[in-house]
Automatic annotation (TrEMBL):
Domain HTH tetR-type: residue ranges: 15-75
An example Gene Ontology molecular-function term: DNA-binding transcription factor activity
Gene3D superfamilies: Homeodomain-like, Tetracycline Repressor, domain 2
Record feature DNA-binding region, as residue ranges: 38-57
Superkingdom: Bacteria
Protein name: TetR family transcriptional regulator
Keywords, in A-Z order: DNA-binding, Transcription, Transcription regulation
Length: 207
């Protein structure tokens, strides 16, 4: 009788140990950049075998994306203030609270974020996809409440504008886009483009 091979199972690792792996990834990323980051170096920093990392994550892109996601202190996924204007302002506030750290880490990814397709796919799955889905939910609620039309032409550009200004302000002004800056950007640019006004504005909510 021929025995059926049993697929190897991932060993369980405590959340504390996983966080140690993520800390090692982010430390190495800050110090050396993505291209010089290796699974061997991460394993050495975290005092574990390289095989342990490969059992838990497919490879370097997936591990880096998971570490970046875990390092986020806030998420826009759960934002629901009761209005689209409020949701966008809260999303901006959350993004701005950690913009300096997040921007430095994204800069550490360097050229790879544009040229490495596997890294791009891992980042889209772990970071970009959930945020884009959150924007879609915000807009859908706004449409359902009658705040904007479903086919409003400005909707398509909301994520690119809000996320883009996070990355470009350090280049243009040498300063990170903090929460105050991003909320003011939403009030001055995004809401008028949608025909909305900030919550509490004397003009009220535009139809």
């Amino acid at each position: 009788m021929t025995s059926t091979p049993v697929a190897p199972r991932r060993s369980k690792i405590s959340p504390e140990r996983v966080q140690e792996f993520y800390d090692a990834v982010l430390d190495q990323l800050r110090e050396h950049g993505y291209e010089a980051l290796t699974m061997e170096g991460i394993a050495a920093r975290a005092s574990c075998g390289k095989s342990t990392l490969y059992r838990q994550w497919k490879g370097k892109p997936q591990l880096v994306a998971a570490a970046l996601r875990a390092g986020r202190q806030g998420t826009i996924v759960a934002v629901d203030t009761g209005s689209l204007a409020g949701d966008l302002r809260e999303a901006a506030r959350i993004a701005g609270c950690t913009s300096g750290r997040d921007t430095r880490l994204m800069q550490a990814l360097g050229h790879a974020v544009l040229s490495d397709e596997e890294l791009q796919a891992a980042l889209r799955e772990a970071l970009v996809g959930p945020e884009l889905a959150a924007f879609d939910v915000m807009v859908a609620r706004g449409v359902a409440r009658g705040e904007i039309a479903a086919d409003h032409p400005a909707v398509e550009f909301l994520p690119a504008q809000l996320m883009g200004v996070l990355r470009i302000r350090p280049v243009l002004e040498g300063r990170y886009a903090d929460a105050d800056y991003l909320v003011r950007f939403v009030d001055a640019v995004l809401l008028p483009a949608l025909g909305l006004t900030p919550p509490g504005s004397p003009a009220g909510q535009a139809p």
